[in-house]
Amino acid sequence: MNKTGLSYVLIDDLSYPNAGLRLTTRRIANVPKEVPDYVEMHSHDVDQLFILLSDTDDSGALEAEFKLEDEVYRVKSPVTVFIPKGVPHSQKVLSGSGRLITFLRKGVYP
Fold first, then answer.
1. Which domain CATH number covers 40?
2. 20 to 30 A from 101, CA-CA: which of 17, 21, 39, 63?
3. Cα 27 from chain centroid?
4. In 10 A of CB 33, how many CB atoms?
5. Between the CA atoms of 24, 29, 30 and 32, what dihedral angle is there, to the nearest 10 degrees?
6. Measured between alpha carbons, how far is residue 70 from residues 3, 41, 67, 99 in Å?
7. Is 110 a domain residue?
8. Does residue 1 belong to any structural domain of this protein?
């Protein structure tokens, strides 16, 4: 899986048994012009929250594309994206630099 940026798992059931949540952060910089799709459409049995924060002002805002079912949304940081459980979705970073934070109420993911 070709992902943009370096990812860190801050907490999950593997690092803290029975944590019941997964919190990750991805440091993003130098996004290539042609960004490959790296997350296939999928869904979770829990709600998911994404937070995009940029390193700079609007000129360097972190920009991402979220697909929720048949709808496509382009968002720029700072922004929070909430995906209800069961909704098929995918996402990819398009440009900018900053942090992509992901929160799920579940502990173990590959």
1. 2.60.120.10
2. 17
3. 11
4. 6
5. 30
6. 23, 10, 7, 26
7. no
8. no
Instruction: Give dist(CA 42, CA 89) in Å, integer.
Output: 6
What is the total count of domains within the chain? 1
Token code pair at residue 95: 């440009």
Measure the CA–CA gap between 58 and 43, rounded to whole angstroms.
31
User: Is residue 91 one of the residues assigned to a domain?
Assistant: yes
Sheet holding 89-95, edge to edge: 71-76, 63-68, 89-95
pLDDT, tens digit (0-9, with 9 covering 90-100), for 62-80: 899 999 999 999 999 999 9
Q: Which domain holds residue 82?
A: 6-104
In a domain, 109, yes or no: no
Give the residue among 25, 33, 20, 23 at the shortest CA–CA distance from 94. 33
The model carries a pTM of 0.83
**Closest of 45, 85, 47, 88 to residue 66, by C-alpha:** 88
For the chain, percent of residues with pLDDT exceeding 90: 42
